[in-house]
Amino acid sequence: MAEFANLTLETAGRHVWRVRPAADQLVALARAVKEEGGQLIALWGSDDRPLGAGYGLHAAFMTSLGMLWATVALAVEDPAHADLAAVFPQAGRMQRATHDLLGIRAEGAEDTRKWLRHGAWPANAFPLRKDYAAATVNEPDAYAFVRVEGDGPHEIPVGPIHAGTIEPGHFRFTIIGDRVLRLEERLGYTHKGTEKRFEGMDLATGARLAGRVSGDSHVAYAWAYCMAVEQAVGAEVPERAVWLRALFLEMERVANHLGDLGYLGNDVALAFGFNQFWKWKEDWLRLTARMFGHRYLFDSVVPGGIAVDLADDGYDLNRMTRRLDDEVAQLKRIYDEHATLQDRFANTGIVKPDMAARLGLTGLAGRASAQAWDARMQFPQPPYDRLAVNMATQRKGDVLARAEVRFAEVFESLRLIRDILKHLPGGAVRAELPAVAAVREGLGWVEGWRGEVVVAVRISADGRLDRVHPHDPSWQNWPLLEVGILGNIVPDFPLINKSFNLSYSGQDL
Amino acid sequence: MATHLILQKILKTGRLSEPAPAADPAMRTREQELQAEILKVFGQAVAIRCVDAGSCNGCELEIHALNSPQYNIEGLGVKFAASPRHVDVLLVTGPVSRNLETALRRTYDATPEPKWVVAMGDCGCTGGMFGESYASCGKVSNVIPVDVEVPGCPPTPTALLQGILAAVSGGH
Ligand code: SF4
């Protein structure tokens, strides 16, 4: 396209492209991505002053080519860029967070309320600036919720501390009768300074922290981080390690999906479903611990490879996948035939495909609303280029559709695990990383169980981390929960919420 | 018919509960003055309120796992409750984020005496990988008094159960 004639596309990994548009080209680029059916995945900033520049604004777009990582150079004084939320609404909260942390403004944005900053640091101080030195404060957290006027509606505020064992967040329902007219989320409560914590860390410790951005997606994050680091420094990862990373990722997917399927049963008063699925999840976790030393595979993915090898031929795991095929099929039959469950699942919490496309719904929830993206299939990193993943999709976008996608993905992951065990190459599982003596950047991208996890990394010339931005798919999906609940009854909120099962920690950072 | 299949499955599955682990007094951080009457009031039952004060959600995975049939916690008298006003034990995870500091204090204040606080996970015990920062207060005991610390990242359900039992058994 003529308007982008000055831009060059550098490869930045497999299916990852880097482009550096001028500030006034960013919106046009976003529009071009949108027109060809792409999406905005992530948006973040960086303080580039130590590199002799100003600030950087980064956007990762999903395109037909793969991931397009656009970086725009911004001024030192009052860094600002044109609003992207007008093109991709999912940019809104990410822009607000970028402002809270770096003081980079989105000019012309409709919503400029704070997001991750509640009242713990001053409004004019930005923690991800390298010279941040503000004292902590304890300001009253005045937040302007959108008000619905009129006689009929009333408000129910819920949280941040919830009644069950779930992460903290605030939900403000406006209801008429028992129907939800509006839901506004307020997140950021678990913001614990994760991105700042990466600064100055060595690369190996960084992998451990990356895996703790959202513990339920430990492998996805650790792998995406390591992929970014390995890309940045030009490391070759042994083939066996790459295959075992995929094994870990599929094991993580199975564990989470089993747990969710159990909870979905529980939320419609089918305690039987909970007990069955959680019996199997627990057995699965115990087997994982026996094989690899940790129930959730924490710290098993490290820069250059993996930390724990498969000791045998995986006979027990293979046998367990066959047993689960059978057990989950039996449980699926029960869920299929259970009238109350079907009645509660069907037509509840609907996100229609056009709305999903407009707001960027992604991952498993996206696939339940006809957003047919799965990086393992369309843009496979090794070993997925050799595994032929079948994508699960549904069109209805209700709780039932999200349950169906989980069922299909459990079966597919069990099959993939057997496939990986069968074709697992031999050899080393870890390689030394080449030393670096200059600033390097990389981006890693993994299809976790919830959706795509993206990690961008900048390494300083001293070989330590300068900037790490981990991106959780929950960023895009949280706003769609606000849509999915509309017109539903308040008591169905826990069920709908669970059917998305989004991460708070992953978006609060 | 679903009911028929469910019954068949329940019968085939049988009992899965495993024997409970013993309390681990080593996890206690302070000696409570635990009078005999209090123990009598509790009997063998204890109600717990979970508070995620900023965790990565890994610790929550293990709290959920504790509800798996294998652990049979309700059979042990351990019950998770929805309100801090109804519990004996607060189970707190995570480094305490500054955005939740006040909420955690309020939850603690709302819990009636006598009460016990179990800090779960390396984050809850020491601040873990997140430590203290502009956004994190670090370990739970920086914010509210803690009776028992259960280390691990995340601690296994068995370790967690040992810690909970240590809190309420008064070391006996
Ligand atoms: S102790 Fe580990 S699992 Fe628990 S919140 Fe901290 S990092 Fe997550």
What is the fold's blueprint, element by element?
The complex is a heterodimer of chains A (509) and B (172).
Chain A lengths: L9 E2 L4 E4 L6 H10 L3 E9 L7 E9 L2 E9 L5 E3 L8 H12 L2 E3 L46 E5 L11 E7 L2 E8 L7 H5 L4 H8 L7 H16 L5 H28 L4 H22 L8 E2 L2 E2 L8 H23 L1 H7 L7 H7 L3 H5 L7 H4 L20 H25 L16 E8 L4 E8 L5 E7 L2 H11 L8 H8 L4 H4 L1
Parallel strand pairs in A: 2-5, 6-7
Antiparallel strand pairs in A: 1-2, 3-4, 4-5, 8-9, 9-10, 11-12, 13-14, 14-15
Helix pairs in contact in A: 4-5, 5-6, 6-7, 6-13, 7-8, 8-13, 13-15
Chain B lengths: L1 H12 L22 H7 L3 E7 L5 H8 L12 E3 L8 E5 L7 H10 L5 E5 H6 L21 E3 L6 H13 L3
The complex binds iron/sulfur cluster.
Describe the structure.
The complex is a heterodimer of chains A (509) and B (172). A 5-stranded mixed beta sheet of chain A has the order 1-2-5-4-3. In chain A, strands 8-9-10 form a 3-stranded antiparallel beta sheet. Chain A has helices at residues 26-35, 91-102, 194-198, 203-210, 218-233, 239-266, 271-292, 315-337, 339-345, 353-359, 363-367, 375-378, 399-423, 474-484, 493-500, 505-508, and strands spanning 10-11, 16-19, 39-47, 55-63, 66-74, 80-82, 105-107, 154-158, 170-176, 179-186, 301-302, 305-306, 440-447, 452-459, 465-471. Helix content of chain A is 38%, strand content 17%. In chain A, a hairpin with a 2-residue loop joins β11 and β12. Chain A is of the alpha+beta class. Chain B has 172 residues and is α/β, with parallel strands linked by helices. Chain B contains 6 helices and 5 strands, in the order ααβαββαβαβα. Chain B has helices at 2-13, 36-42, 58-65, 101-110, 121-126, 157-169; strands at residues 46-52, 78-80, 89-93, 116-120, 148-150. Chain B starts with a helix and ends with a helix. Chains A and B meet through α3, α7 and α8 of A and α1, β1, α3 and α4 of B. Iron/sulfur cluster (SF4) binds at residues 55-56, 58-59, 93-94, 121-123, 128-129, 153-154 of chain B.
